[in-house]
Amino acid sequence: MKKIYLFLTALLLTVAAGAQTFKDWTSTNGGTNNSTSQNSYTVGVVAGCAFTFDWSVSSESNYDWLIITLDGTQILKKSGTANGTYTHEFSESGVYTFVAQYTKDGSGSSGSDQAKITNATITIPETNTGKKGDVDGDGSIDVADVTEVVNIILNPDSDDDDNTTVTPGTPSVTVGTAIDLGLSVKWASCNVGATAPEEYGGYYAWGETEEKSDYDWDTYKYCNGTYDTMTKYCTSSSYGTVDNKTTLEASDDVASVKWGGNWRMPTTEEQQELINKCTWTWTTLNGVNGYRVTGPNGNSIFLPAAGYRSGTGAYGQGSYGFCWSSSLFSYYSYSACSLYFYSGGYDWYYYGRYYGHTVRPVSE
After folding, report:
1. What residues have CB less than 8 Å from 283, skipping those under 6 apart?
2. pTM value?
3. In a 3-state reduction of DSSP, which class is residue 12?
4. Tens of pLDDT along 283-307?
């Protein structure tokens, strides 16, 4: 509460003069293969505010990407030589985070091999007093306006004039379409965090429901910093506290948490069914490598080769794909089962739970 209050105080009192501007960003990983450089912008806003920035990228087309997300949902993905201006107008009050990433694969470089964000600015809508930032409409911009914003964000139902429910930190999420492949479950048309089949979407450690900047045992939610100190989902005392849980609970299932309804992460058995009963064709969709997976009934989905995240880097994008299942690899409790694929084949295997893999949900 205090941190949000202080942040919004600085925001509103700065914006009162017109707008709040942010520092420009230029990626710093040019020439470094299998790497990611990123910058984030966290903004506290009231409904009607707009966040605008100029973007540019000069890279190896279809391999090295400028990717921009809003609260984990991808809003822009560009490669090659391109530039433009992006504006997002907020329909609900809240605290939002934009992340800009420049991700490089394992091959060469082109152009200046960098991405840039410039002229990032928050603008405040005019109120009935004609003053920007005058949230309560009393003709002046002061701490009372900050208090009003905090109340809107933290107590969304307290304003009788606004029936919109605002949940701070909950992004606007694109939910995929359920595709019937003729299997025991329906498969989503895109990954969690994506808006189209070819988009990579978010990367999540197994059992975690938010992305992060560093994927390691030190940052993993369900251990005490090492592979043999698991605090949940453990079948052997050699690897931590035994609870014999082998399938993710709904609260730890990012598909259930982000998409709701009947959506969830697939089990290893359901991924095995996808492997055994479907035809897999390595192809490209809108310049993105991956597999077209066609079911017994002729319907298909596309799985992008999104690679994975480890530490602070991204690896194998465009060459490999990894999609978590909800199943623990119980023999080694520090591992979980994940579908993996590349141009030469596809199967499932077990990986350390701290790795950042993508998630392709299923529904009944």
Report:
1. 289, 290, 291, 292
2. 0.55
3. helix
4. 999 899 999 999 999 999 999 999 9
